[in-house]
Amino acid sequence: MLKSFIPLKFKLDSSITDKHSAGGAAQARFTQGFFQRSFDRKLLIRVFLAIICTTILAFSIVAPTYRDFTLSRQNLHDIQQYRLVLDTANFLSAERGPANVVMSEEPSLDSAGMKRLVEFRQRSDAALAQLADVSDVPLGLHNHTVPPDMLQRVRYQLALARSKVDRIAAIPRAALKTAEIQDAIESMFEVSELFRAVIAWNADELVQHDTGLAAPALLGQMLSDLREYGGRAASQIIAPLTTEQRLPPQNVIESRRSQGRLLELWQLINSQNAIYSTPSLIKSRDEIERLFFRGGLDLVDQVIDEGRRKSRYTLTATEFTERFVPTMRPIETYRSEFLDAVVEKFADASTNALFGLAIVVLVTAIVLATLIGIILSVRTHVFRPLMQAHDDVLRLAEDRPIATATRPTQAGEIRDLFQAIEVLQGKLQERASLTRELKVQAETDGLTALLNRRMLDRFAQSSPIGERTNDSMCLILMDIDHFKKVNDTYGHVTGDRVLIQTAELLRSQLRACDLIARFGGEEFAVLVSSNDLSGAVSIARKIRLAMQRETFTTPDGTPFRVTASFGVASGRRGERAWSELIELADTALYRAKSDGRNRVRFARNTLSAPAAMSTTRDNLALERRSPK
Q1: Domain 453-625, what fold?
Q2: Would I find Transmembrane helix among this entry's keywords (predicted)?
Q3: Closest CA to 41 of 442, 387, 478, 493
Q4: Pairing between strand 552-553 and 559-560?
Q5: How far, in Å, CA of 48 to CA of 376, rounded?
Q6: In Å, what is the CA distance from 21 to each residue of 17, 77, 163, 435, 620?
Q7: Is the dihedral of CA 575, 579, 584, 589 positive or negative?
Q8: 146 near 81, Cβ under 8 Å?
């Protein structure tokens, strides 16, 4: 209970005793604080500007490296997506091989050619679906999504060409017509032509994003065309070969045109050897020269010569396809190895860019942290300690405690300065502690640890803080009955024990908001912060019964009991009102003693008539039930 009122007590002390001395100190503190805030503000502004300039310099160093990293990362993603486009083109071209075989055989759903055609078609469909997928890309990257209308045209033409192939595959070989087979083959050519537009669009997108992608994009496109025209050179003669008819001049012209295009592409590709020249690529180029240009195209020339001279061929369409397709595998191998090399090159570039970015960021961060550290160190270890010492000296001069913040760790004179200030601080804290103890001793009863009469008077006579604070209160005066007899019978030591035990009983029976004090001698006072006299009377009754039931003992353990009388009154805070309230409560206490002690009486003129009658009846009924 005492601890809960100590902050109130010291607040009251400061408001009563320090009014005159606070003015000058407050003015000094204002001047001191304004000076320090002004200095700190100027210093902080300069430090902030220095940090901003350093950060801008660091950003100008890091930004280009970061741009290089993001560009290399995007290029790697673009090349990987471009490879998907080229792979799809290869799948569409490769689908013509099993389609030619199926159209040249007798109808069968279980033939090896039909199963292979189904497998190739599934592969083409999966590749087209992957190109159309617009799922989320990694953070910071973007896709060059193929326009849906371009893919839709490819799908439509592919479905049309497949329907023609399937229709011909269902016709017996003897009933096949060259024109129908040629029409189906031309439809497959149209699919590749439409998809070449997709490749060109994607390559243009890559070059517009970064001209560094022009070489791999163009070379990849040429390799895709090499595979396409290699297949066309053979497909142009499949229709008459299947029906065992003489080669029409138009078929010969188209096949020769495709071969010429192949030679042009191959010359252009060979001119780019210096860009991507690895042992595996060199080996694949040699294989293309040996197997395709000397083997595959020679086989085409042989069939053309036979078809121009007569209608009987030494090879069937299926045999021709089975011998020609393997000669094109080096082209596919070369294309795959080239794309692997391109992807690996850009992956290495992305890794190197990331490594370079990490180094630049690390070095820049170290430099930036060092500069900021130096700036902050000067502020912290030079300017701030001096300002703190200035502030501490002024506080000591004004007899105020200095801040308890951690002292700066400095060497030399500054360290000695703060060591001296710390000594003064310790002395000041010791003096403040002694002062607080003296105040507590001066305003606290030493025996019961309750507030004494002086503190009670100061609180009750002070004006309430705040306009809305209720200044009404009730006073309960309590006097231990026959206390002199206790002292005479058991001694003063036992009397002190009774006072201490009574104080503990009051603490246990009252609320935290009620103020308890030793009023003098064997008298105690309780201030209830309310004008509810009935409630105060009830509190007094509760204390009276608790006292009546309490067992007290002498130092040797002899038990005995004591009772107490109570006087209750209500009033207000203030110097004059407090005197009147004490007089009313004391009069009520006197009546309680006159009526036989162990009674609760209240000042009747402070309670309304109905409440007084009710309280009186309750009081009399309780006293009749309670032993005297």
Answers
A1: Alpha-Beta Plaits (3.30.70)
A2: yes
A3: 387
A4: antiparallel
A5: 10
A6: 8, 77, 107, 17, 55
A7: positive
A8: no
Distance from C-alpha of 576 to C-alpha of 533, rounded to nearest angstrom: 20
User: What CA–CA distance (Å, rounded) separates 298 from 300?
Assistant: 5
> What's the CA gap between 597 and 586, in Å, rounded?
14
Distance CA 597, CA 592 (A): 6
Sequence-ordered list of residues with C-beta below 8 angstroms from that of 111, at least 6 positions apart, any chain? 102, 105
Q: What is the pLDDT of residues 373-398, one digit of tens each?
A: 887 777 777 777 777 777 777 777 67
Report residue 513 CA to chain centroid gap: 45
Q: Give the DSSP letter of residue 449.
A: -
Residue 625 has pLDDT above 50, yes or no: no
Backbone φ, ψ for residue 468 (5° rounding): -90, 0
| Residues 105, 111: Cα–Cα separation, whole Å | 9
CA distance 382 to 376: 10
More confident residue, 577 or 17: 577
525 bridge partner residues: 477, 517
For residues 236 and 239, what is the distance between their CA atoms, to the nearest angstrom? 7
Q: How crowded is residue 118: how many other Cβ atoms within 10 Å of its Cβ? A: 13
Quote the crossing angle between the two packed helices 249-270 and 214-235, to the nearest 10°.
150
* Whether 272 contacts 219, CB under 8 Å: yes
What whole-number distance in Å separates Cα of residue 578 and Cα of residue 515? 15
* 385-393 long-range Cβ contacts below 8 angstroms, 24+ apart: 385/410, 385/414, 385/418, 386/414, 387/36, 387/39, 387/40, 389/414, 389/417, 389/418, 389/421, 390/36, 391/32, 391/36, 392/421, 392/425, 393/421
* HEC profile of 365-416: HHHHHHHHHHHHHHHHHHHHHHHHHHHHHHHHHCCCCCCCCCCCCCCCHHHH
Neighbouring residues of 237: CB distance < 8 A, sequence distance ≥ 6: 247, 251, 252, 255, 300, 303, 304, 307
pLDDT per residue over 480-524, tens digit each? 999 999 999 999 999 999 999 999 999 999 988 899 999 989 999
For 520, the 3-state DSSP assignment is strand
On whether the pTM is more than 0.70, the answer is no
Domain spans of the chain, in order of start: 91-350, 401-443, 453-625
Q: 3-state DSSP call for residue 95?
A: coil
The pLDDT of 396-419, averaged and rounded, is 65
Residue 60: CA atoms inside 13 Å, Cβ hemisphere, count?
6
183-to-40, 193, 259 alpha-carbon distances in Å: 89, 15, 21
